[in-house]
Amino acid sequence: MRKKIIAGNWKMNANPTEATALAKRLIEAGVESDYADVVFCVPAIDIPAVVGAVKGTGVAVGGQNVHFKPSGAYTGEISADMLTDAGARYVIIGHSERRQYFGETDETVNLRLAAALAGGLIPIVCVGESLGQRERGVTIELVRSQVKTAFGGVSAEDAAKTIIAYEPIWAIGTGRVATAEQAQDVCAAIRTVIGELYGSGVADSVRVQYGGSVARDNAAELFGQPDIDGGLVGGASLKEDFVNITNYKARKG
Ligand code: PGA
Q1: Are 245 and 215 in contact (CB under 8 A)?
Q2: Residue 157 annotated in active site
């Protein structure tokens, strides 16, 4: 049985002072879950503060990007070692906002994935189609190709540890959530391609999240699908209501 994993993607929100307060409020409101791993993926500068705020709880902390080299002349970038030393255990890679605004490609996602794994981080690799691609009927083909390129050179052992987030771009921050059926179909296709690359053992153990306008009212249906192992949650992870997403089976309020 795969344990669910629900990660908040705080994006570029909250300075270290605000991040500490938000993390504490979420903990006090009961964000921990009996049936899901809970992660806060926060701006890099907030990592030490949030690691301190969640200390002693089951909540883990993640970054939102990682560079592919261990160190060197890469102004503005952050290495896997820097993230782990600051207390991060997870890292988001290839979010569509990185692809759209910062020139991230499937090839750089592949390099970052290798660096994250080599550095001992648990990667959350994002894939997903635009509205135009969905309307053209190329979603499955595109997502399969994103996964294949991202996982080039990754061993089966490492692939099994990696989390994949299916995030249709048209559903991110729009309030327009994919139907449970649409999300399930693509998450199942992702598991199929992992099976083709690594065999059924890895396909059965890899966790596939859905992301894009996840909210308290749609979480239970989405996370109840056989191939959806939790979610990557943006806007709703910045509010106390996030506890009702991490505890989607029995809401707290
Ligand atoms: P959203 O963002 O939940 O605000 O749609 C999801 C994401 O970008 O990871």
Answers
A1: yes
A2: no
